[in-house]
């Protein structure tokens, strides 16, 4: 039988997880300040193991240079709902933690949001591993995130400009 180490997130677990939640709530509410508050300036997102509509994605480097313009321009034109769950925090040092979690993300055209059945939508689930660092007191931010596709369902055409994130 395998043995597992108990997660050692400690009292910092909530602010560590909050760094991640700020990112996805910022996306879902189209709130640039909230979205950027969760990242370090030199943040990286590795989407190379993610496929959207059969198209492999890329790596993004730097919050202002790459992440904000590509992610928010890509996601901005349509509605999203990111359900972030199954957190596991492994605190590596007083100022560094590695967090694994799952996201189920739904995407739809804004005009379709009030319809009882979404005519075109795309739902996907990814596993994420994020390196989160303490930047000041209780404030933590994501320095690096690696994503891996688990499954997808629906019409990726709703995503429109896949070329913004494509490899």
From TrEMBL:
Source organism, top-level taxon: Eukaryota
InterPro entries hit by this protein: NTF2-like_dom_sf, SnoaL-like
Residue span, SnoaL-like domain: 12-144
Name this protein carries in UniProt: SnoaL-like domain-containing protein
Origin species: Colletotrichum karsti
């Amino acid at each position: 039988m395998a043995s597992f180490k108990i997660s050692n997130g400690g009292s910092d677990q909530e602010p560590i997880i909050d760094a991640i939640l700020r990112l996805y709530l910022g996306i879902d509410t189209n709130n640039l300040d909230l979205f950027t508050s969760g990242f370090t300036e030199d943040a990286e997102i590795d989407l190379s193991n993610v496929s959207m509509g059969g198209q492999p994605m890329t790596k993004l480097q730097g919050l202002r240079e790459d992440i904000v313009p590509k992610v928010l321009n890509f996601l901005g034109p349509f509605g999203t709902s990111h359900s972030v769950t199954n957190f596991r925090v492994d605190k590596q040092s007083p100022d560094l933690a590695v967090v694994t979690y799952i996201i189920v993300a739904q995407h739809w055209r804004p005009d379709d949001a009030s319809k009882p059945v979404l005519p075109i939508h795309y739902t996907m689930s990814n596993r994420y591993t994020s390196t989160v660092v303490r930047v000041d007191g209780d404030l933590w931010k994501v320095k690096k995130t690696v994503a891996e596709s688990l499954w997808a369902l629906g019409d990726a055409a709703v995503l429109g400009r896949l070329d913004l994130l494509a490899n």
